[in-house]
Amino acid sequence: MPATSPGPTSRIFFSQRLRLHYVDWGNAEAPPLLLVHGGRDHCRNWDWLAERLGRDWHIIAPDLRGHGDSQWSQDGTYMMAGYVYDMAQLVHQLKLAPATILAHSLGGNIALRYAGLYPANVAKLIAIEGLGPSPRRMAEREKKPFPDRMRAWIDEQRALSARLPRRYASIEDAWKRMQEENKHLTPEQARHLTVHGVNQNEDGTYSWKFDNYVRSWPPYDMTYAEVEELWGRISCPTLLVYGKESWASNPAQDGRVRHFKSAEVVSIEGAGHWVHHDRLDEFVALTRKFLKR
Question: What pLDDT shows up at residue 5?
Fold first, then answer.
């Protein structure tokens, strides 16, 4: 199902001296809808959803730092605090508040924290598998002494410094890798995501646009209790969406939903982690119904 509209306009904003990219789908008189992608993804992964919702919303979709056409962090560190600051700057500079936010995975994690920090700035929030690791995985991580976590991070950074971006001889080769990553994608979806997700190198090969350092999670962050506190501060209607075939832990089952004042959890059959790709029609219907309330 290829995207059929002429596409959005590319724009730039600055955050912590980084040159960050976003696309604007027009319709500026409509209420703002911010679409935020996940890790190792890019803003054009929302094209199908933007085409469906663009008549009713002013859609803005950023590339996170280190992703897509946004600048990479100069020191190779990608803190959640930096991602949240970028969102705060985008909303502030474009005067989007109160905005409706729809975000996936890492983007959902960022959006949930932002909504807890600035409840009045978010009108409604949909997070697709955006709560991060399950409570069990977080507990296992916290059992590891901090010096061990810090040394492991240093070793990982050192290894990533020697890792060159993977090169593909053709877009077709990169397209095949995209299909391997998500078996739910149609060939047309995978091709669209690949075309917008690679750059051509000087030697004619192709590499993914994201910085390899985004794979590394820093050894320090907000505590789990602090994140839960932010969830509890969210005042807008919130929809937490999960795919029944995903590896992600469902917050209705692991207890995390109890930290929210007003959150609904919906699971979708036949969908993995990328629910908005795997079951597009169902997800669009669910989104429209929630946003019209």
Answer: 62
